[in-house]
Structures are given as structure tokens and as C-alpha cells.
Amino acid sequence: MLVTGIKSKPVYAPLQADIRGRYHLMLGMGVGAAPLLRVIEEMRAAATQSLKNTRVLFVSDGAGGKGTASQAGATPAMEQFTAAAVGGVQEFAAIPALLEHFRTILGQSLMGTRLYVAGPESFIGLVMKIALEFNLNKDEIRAEECGTLARRVYCIHCRATTENVRTNIVRCVACDRWLLVRDHYSRRLAAYMGVMADAEAPGELPPLKEVFL
Fold first, then answer.
1. pTM of the predicted model, to two decimals?
2. Range of the domain at 113
3. Are 162 and 69 members of one domain?
4. What gap in Å lies between CA 38 and CA 19, rounded to an integer?
């Protein structure tokens, strides 16, 4: 069964600009563009010099393979980011390409950098996983969840990860077991735990329901 209120489940607050930061790195996916644009307007209203030190990395929906950066202005969101006159804007065809570039940027980042992330929880988790590898602390990171609630599910039996899970049970992409999607979340793995749903009574599965829409 799903366990509600479990402490490991992330809780996200609306994004707010941190004008104390010297450099601002924004990562967004899909409808996550709106919170990032809101933060940019907060910076503008505060009349800081932050906008010229702000970089935006954006992916429309994360579909496709590795993908490379797309031409700026290809989507309405990119047009808005470009019009905002921030220091730099890049659009990517897929999440892996964005994350690869993000990792490179973090390796070159200076003290005083603030990270803003907006999009579905699965996207936020992947970004946070890399941020933790670079030892960013919680005062340097802000995240706002928006968009699909679909989950990344980690099979505790074979250690494979199944993406974009919307149902309470799911077949593991690697070992083919039916997994019960738990609310226990691992920041290290950026995924929810999946445990064999019919371990005690083989073949007896709960009704399949769409619960993460």
C-alpha cells in the first residue's frame, strides 16, 4: 500500500528570488518556465544587477534521446526567456543533454551561485541529484514542483529505474516484476522505491490505477 506523509517525500515551496546571490542558474522543464519567469521579474523589480549574471537551461518536455541544444526562440517559453534579457539562455531537446551541460556548469561555478529548478518532480530530482554531488547546500537551492506527478521508480530487486510511472503498480523495465510504487523517496537515486507487489502471494496484484497524473 502507499504510505502518505512519509518523511522522505520531498516538499517544495514556490520559487522566490534570492537577491543576495551573485550568480543565478535556472533550470526548467515544460510549465516550469512560468515560475522561472516570475523569479526573473522579481529580480528586475528589485533593481539588482542579477539579470546579467543569470543563465537559463530549459527543456520543453524532456522527450527524445540525448539531444543537443536547440535554437533559442524555438518555443514561446524560449521567446520569453530571451526577451527577459538575462545573461544566457539555452534550450535542449531532451533532459539528458540539459543535465550533462548542467554538470559542466556546476564544475565551473563560483561562490555565491544560486540554483532555481522548476518542473515535474522527476525532473527536479535528477537536477538535485547532481547538485548534491557538487555539495550545494539547501540555502543555495530552490525548487518548485509543477506539471505531471509521474514518478521515477527504482526497483529494489534488480536496481533498474522505470521512468514516467503514473500507476500504483508498474512492471519493472529490466526484471519484469510487478512493483508496488511506494512513497519512500531516495534523493541519492532521485526515485521512489518499487517493491515486488505479489511477493507474498504470487500472481495476486492490486487493481491497476492511475494515481500520479
1. 0.87
2. 23-145
3. no
4. 14
